[in-house]
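Private note to self, pasted from the team thread so I don't lose it. Backbone tokens:
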């Protein structure tokens, strides 16, 4: 179960840190957005994550596979984050498309909880899901600490202002974390036959 916990550590918390804290200032610096347009990217990100989360849940239930979807979604997020940070000459529309891809990555993170359910006994699901949430939060806290500390260091001689090169250095931790998630999903997460929670066996355990 530590494999899925480490995947959650590298995935969901990181996406939330970027989307909630650093995406708007980064995109404003990256594309010189006017004030009225700076929140459009976040609407795209969260709308994509919200709409696709149940879709990924349905698809994984039908396929009875979680790990491949987790690996593919993290790969999509990793590539989108890399090109958003380092590609040159892209338009704001392309930037929004990359944020859509990051929303796809975030949407699939819900499958970490389904994976926990698949691999835990009924009596241990609550504890396992709690640990999964804790590791997700811890990943976000550590990532945010690294990004904030790096930006403060790089911006210390510029009146506290952060420029695009500063964001590119500080946010480079994001594709690294997502690459780690891809590696974990490919080599350490193994799907098993999905069984209902309220099976005959678990009913006996409850008695």
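Design output:
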């Amino acid at each position: 179960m530590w494999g899925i916990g480490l995947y959650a550590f590298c995935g969901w918390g990181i996406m939330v840190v970027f989307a909630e804290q650093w995406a708007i200032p980064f995109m404003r610096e990256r594309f010189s957005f006017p004030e009225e347009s700076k929140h459009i990217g976040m609407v795209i990100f969260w709308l994509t994550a919200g709409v696709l989360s149940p879709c990924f849940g349905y698809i994984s239930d039908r396929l009875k596979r979680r790990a491949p979807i987790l690996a593919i979604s993290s790969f999509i997020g990793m590539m989108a984050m890399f090109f958003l940070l380092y590609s040159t000459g892209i338009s704001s529309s392309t930037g929004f498309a990359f944020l859509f891809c990051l929303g796809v990555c975030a949407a699939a993170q819900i499958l970490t909880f389904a994976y926990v359910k698949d691999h835990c006994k009924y009596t241990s699901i609550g504890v396992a899901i709690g640990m999964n949430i804790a590791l997700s939060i811890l990943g976000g806290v550590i990532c945010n600490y690294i990004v904030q500390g790096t930006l403060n260091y790089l911006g210390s001689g510029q009146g506290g202002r952060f420029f695009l090169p500063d964001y590119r250095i500080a946010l480079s931790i994001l594709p690294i974390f997502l690459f780690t998630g891809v590696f974990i999903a490919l080599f350490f997460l193994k799907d098993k036959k999905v069984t209902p929670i309220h099976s005959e066996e678990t009913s006996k355990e409850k008695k």
